[in-house]
Write a structure and sequence with these properties.
With 294 residues, the chain is α/β, with parallel strands linked by helices. The protein has helices at residues 12-27, 51-62, 83-91, 107-112, 130-144, 162-173, 202-206, 230-237, 263-268, 274-293, and strands spanning 40-45, 66-70, 97-102, 119-124, 151-155, 177-181, 197-198, 211-214, 248-250. It has 10 helices and 9 strands. The structure holds phosphoric acid mono(formamide)ester.
């Protein structure tokens, strides 16, 4: 039984194991059927989600677990109970794991000090989104047959992106040539940039890469204040039919259509892996359950 909070806490061998296990599950449903029989998993999301919450639920149910989703808007949090007290009270019912998404960076680490029940981080603030990084790694491995030495550029609102931070840890494990590109107001400060290249322009950002990963402008974190307009962002940082790269395109979702990605690319580009990422998310989360609970 273990927590799953950040890629930073994992070894290269553990990430490789999770990726290969996810692909085994994808190829053979007998490998995961019944693995979580008699387990009860509780999810509680303090921020919105479509992909992550649903795929954790589908993965749990296909593995035979009971899955309870707490809608925090319908819970006693609305009567004034704190998020901490909510988790402690739910812990007393002895579930086998918590899936937690929280808007505060570091909140899953904080919770993990008070419970031995595995905390599986479904995204904390701007810090970590480890299950997204694993599903992305599954998709990269499936596409290129390796994780070592990949050339990856992440474009967009890097400062607010827990996906970019998780891939920063991933890049250290697998010696990626990782670069960032975006408006200067959305790039992280120096302490994050050890061995990370900042691309000079969009042409360079899109050249000679295995994977280009686009990110959403996170309006819920007031990122809109860091750019003059979404229209201007699309013009200078967006991918469209005039600047489409040779590399594969990835995006963690949700996409702001016609901002970071034009509709013609989103709907028709044959090297887009975006739907494949969502598909692999279910198998990646199965591998994470097995790693933490079995
Ligand atoms: N990629 C991702 O975390 O998507 P959701 O916010 O829909 O879960």
């Amino acid at each position: 039984m273990r927590h799953f909070i950040s890629i930073k806490d994992l070894s290269k061998e553990e990430v490789e194991f999770l990726v290969k296990r996810a692909l085994e599950f994808k190829q053979n449903s007998q490998a995961y059927k019944g693995k979580l029989k008699d387990k009860t998993i509780i999810s509680i999301f303090f921020e919105n989600s479509t992909r992550t919450r649903t795929s954790f639920e589908i993965a749990a149910k296909r593995m035979g677990a009971s899955f309870i989703n707490i809608d925090h808007n319908q819970s006693s949090i609305k009567k004034g109970e704190t998020d901490y007290d909510t988790i402690i009270n739910l812990s007393a019912m002895m579930p086998d794991a918590f899936i937690v998404r929280h808007y505060h960076s570091g909140y899953p680490y904080f919770l993990s000090r008070f419970t031995d029940i595995p905390i599986i981080n479904a995204g904390d603030g701007t810090a970590n989104h480890p299950s997204q990084a694993i599903l992305d790694a599954v998709t990269m491995f499936e596409t290129k047959g390796k994780l070592e030495g990949l050339k990856v550029c992440i474009i967009g609102d890097i400062t607010n992106s827990r996906v970019a931070k998780s891939h920063l840890w991933m890049s250290k494990l697998f010696n990626w040539e990782l670069s960032f590109y975006g408006p200067r107001t959305m790039l992280p400060d120096e302490r994050w940039l050890d061995n990370i290249k900042i691309e000079k322009n969009l042409k360079d950002a899109l050249s000679d890469k295995d994977f280009v990963m686009l990110l959403r402008i996170q309006l819920e974190r007031e990122s809109g204040n860091n750019i003059p307009s979404l229209k201007e962002y699309a013009k200078f940082f967006g991918i469209n039919s005039l600047n489409v790269p040779d590399s594969y395109i990835m995006h963690p979702g949700p996409v702001n259509r016609n901002v970071e990605l034009a509709s013609e690319i989103l709907d028709n580009f044959n090297k887009s892996l975006i739907t494949k990422q969502v598909e692999n998310g279910v198998f990646a989360r199965m591998a994470i359950y097995e790693f933490c609970l079995v």
